[in-house]
Amino acid sequence: MTLLFLLLYYIIIIVGKSDRQFQLSVISYQLGAIAKLKKIIRVSVA
Question: Could you tell me which residue, 39 or 12, shows the higher pLDDT?
């Protein structure tokens, strides 16, 4: 999970270098997606 997050963060940095507003929106989207993944993982584990 941590490795996936680092990979996504690395991609976000590369893609969002030119446009900071786009970078912020992508980061917020990725955080939301990670939260959903954590919920899915908790449900599948429980």
Answer: 39
Structural domain boundaries, residue 24: 2-45
In the DSSP assignment, the letter for residue 16 is T
Please give the distance of CA 35 from its chain centroid, rounded to a whole number: 9
Q: Which two tokens stand for residue 39?
A: 């919920």
Domain total of the chain: 1
* CA dihedral (24, 30, 34, 35) positive or negative: positive
Q: Is the pLDDT of residue 23 over 80?
A: no
Which residue did the predictor score with more confidence, 31 or 14? 31
